[in-house]
Design a protein that fits this description.
The protein is an alpha+beta fold. It has a domain of about 130 residues: Aminopeptidase (3-Layer(aba) Sandwich), CATH 3.40.630. It is about 35% helix and about 35% strand. About 5% of the residues have low confidence.
Length: about 230
């Protein structure tokens, strides 16, 4: 089994469609904020087209990047975000199933080792990943791995830190920073002229000389007189 990451410059439709299909049930169950998109009430095919357009926009942007994780040439995940110098800000990821029909590869050391090697290859020194908060697939995955790293300092992270000349162990307690609430510039208008305000809650966790930022969206609906 060989897992690797690669930057891409164009989207493979067959691979993208398969990974999207592997995610759509979770996305419809709340792991993606369809309510703030133009396809909130659309079909799954319309949602697929919209998400593909979003990934394409990252490819089109001068600071956008898209990369694929694959196992023996079989695409497993596709991720996108913005690059600011050596800092990567992750915005979207589709996590498909492997050829055995499982997503358990995300917890294998080979997967983590390949990802860490990729970070070094493309010179991503720091990174943030935005999620929709507890109970959604990607947040729960990231937090589970994070907690394991803090508690157990697994070999893959020790090897990565050694390669980066980072001294000291990461084992210890994750300390949460203060949540920072900011309102997204756009507000949305729902049914009956109700105003929907979307805010982000950002929490920073520190462990040793590494950090993790978890971002979730919160939606508040304000009922106007016209909507009563």
């Amino acid at each position: 089994m060989t897992i690797r990451y690669d930057m891409i410059t164009e989207i493979n439709d067959v691979e993208f469609n398969r990974m999207f299909d592997d995610c759509i049930d979770n996305m419809n169950a709340g792991s993606y904020p369809w309510e703030i998109t133009p396809v909130a009430t659309g079909t799954n095919e319309e949602k697929k087209a919209y998400i593909k357009t979003c990934f394409q926009e990252f490819l089109n942007d001068a600071n956008g990047v898209v990369f694929v994780c694959s196992e023996d040439g079989y695409a497993l995940t596709i991720s996108s975000g913005f690059l600011n110098g050596t800092h990567f800000e992750g915005h979207m990821v589709l996590i498909g199933r492997n050829q055995a029909g499982s997503k358990s590869f995300m917890y294998h050391d080979d997967y983590h080792t390949a990802r860490e090697a990729f970070w070094d290859e493309v010179n991503f020194l720091t990174w943030d990943f935005q999620t929709l908060g507890p109970g959604t697939a990607f947040y729960d995955h990231v937090k589970t791995v994070f907690d394991d790293v803090v508690a157990n300092s697994p070999e893959w992270i020790e090897n990565a830190r050694f390669a980066r000349n980072k001294e000291g162990s990461l084992a210890g307690t994750a300390v949460a920073g203060t949540a920072n609430n900011t309102v997204v510039p756009e507000s949305l208008v729902g049914t009956g002229n109700n105003t929907i305000t979307v805010a982000t809650t950002v929490t920073d966790y520190q462990m040793g000389n590494s950090s993790l930022k978890l971002t979730k969206y919160e939606q508040t609906e304000i009922i106007s007189e016209e909507g009563e």
